Every structure is written in C-alpha cells, then in structure tokens.
Fold:
Amino acid sequence: MPNVSRTTLLQVISWILSTSIAISFIFSAWAKIPELESFGWTIVETTFLNWTLSEWLARLLVGFELLLGIFYLFQFRIKSITFPWAVTTILLFSIYLMMVIWQRGNEGNCGCFGEVIRMTPLESLIKNCILLSLLFIQFKLTKPWGFHKDQWIALALGIGAVLIPFLMYPPESIYLYKADANLKEPIPLSLLYETQKNTPPAVELRQGKHILLFLSLSCHFCRKAARRLEIMKNEYPEIPFYAILNGDSSQLNSFLDETRLQQIPYSLFNGPKDFIAMNGKSSFPGIRWVEDTTVVRESNYLNLQESDILNWLKKNK
Structure:
C-alpha cells in the first residue's frame, strides 16, 4: 500500500509539472503572437539572418512553442520526443537572449512574454533555468504512455499549432509589391529651408545623395518603416538616411519611443501641403532616393535592400 501511494503521489506531481510546463509554453506563445513583427526585427538585429528569414523564423518558433505546450498538456511521448525538443528550444532561446545582452545590454523588454509580462533578458534567462529544472524533474517522474495511432493526432495538433502564428499574422514577404520606381523628377527641398515656422535641417540635403524618409507621426506603417530602417542604419551607418516627420508634435515622443529612432537624423516639418509636395503623393511612408534636388528612385520599406543603396552610393565616385 505505501508503494502504491508513493507511486500515485509521483504521478500526481508529474501531472502537475507537465501541466505547469504546458501553461508556460502556451502562454509564452500566445503573448508573443501580437508582437511577432517586433520579435522578427530583434532576430534581424541580433543574428546574421535577413528580413525574410527572420520574420518566418519568428512565427515558426512561436508555433513550435505552442506545439510543445500542447504536447506537454497531453503528455505526448515526453521521453522520446517532447522533452528533447523542449530542452533544445529553451537552449536556443537562451543563446538568443545572451546575444541580446551582448549586443544591447540587459535593458528593455526581451519579448519572451510579449508585452503581457515585461522581462529583461537576464530575468528571462533565469526563467529559462527554472523551466529547464522543471523539465528534468518531470522527465524523471514521467512514465511512457500512449494510445493507438496517437502519432497521427500529434501530427494534426502539431501542424495546427505551427500554422496558427502564420495564419493570424502572415509574413509580409508573402505579399507582392511593386518594383521600385525609377524616376527623374525635381523635389522642392528648398521648402525645408525657407519656411519660417520650421527649423531647417542641419544637413544640406540639396547636395549629394540621400535617402529621404517622409513619415507621418500618426501613421502606423510609418512607424514600422522607421523601426525597420533604424535597424538598417545601425548595421550600415554609411547609408545617408534622413527622416522628415510631419504631424502633431505631441506625438513625437511616442513615435521616437516606438521606432527607437536614434541613428537616423530627422526634422519635424509643419505644413502638410508642402510635406505632400516633397513626398510627391499623399500616401505615406515615402522613401525617395535623392541626388542633389532630383528624385531618382522610390521604394517601399518592405523591398528596400541595403545592397541596392550601397551600390547606388558607389556610382560616379
């Protein structure tokens, strides 16, 4: 009888641990889903992967977390499949966190629980160590079990879990965008320097080559573009980006906080009519390749390539 009671107690502890681990994985995946785009950007910043691979990897990792949570919830083949997959996943996330600390320090939200629970990278590393300990304890206590054709049920659940992040927030690389427009049209940059209600840029934008960013402070896509191009500027400081911002100055601080705009110089420009005239259209964001006072090319921030800009800068030098 004592042996039976002890066995039952260990099974209950194993079930509690596996359920706790499942909740941790599922909650982590659920919290990350609204922040998938930011997660992909962080992967770009901290690894050698490009934009497309990073946004797909971000969704794949979140889907895999969800899969692990479901497997632990149903205690599916813990010893042979779920445990080694879970340990590998946590180790990969931990390596990623160490890279974040090495490159950016232990500051800000690591995004491991999205914006639901804000944690520094070091706090998340500690959380991973605790989770690893629970995984090993549960591994020791669990008993192998299964049922007829359980692998097919697991496969269906796994495919569904992995697809959820892709279906909820499809990667932007799946959409087709128009190729960059090659132009040769004047741009009235004197408006930046001649209006009394605006402080002129400290940079002379009417001479040489510049990539001008026309961004509205209230535009969601402008914020996404600024964040993405700020990352690009950090990696390639020689790219001559310059941002011209338009909108209510009360929105400036939130814009700068969200986009982390630090490396790209900018000017706040008042006057929507003149702002649209320089942008060449009333839709934003606008990305215009300017040589002296002539626009030679326009880009979408999603298909803007660093290599194209660097090659353009080298021409006629």
Notes: The first strand starts at residue 181 and ends at 186.
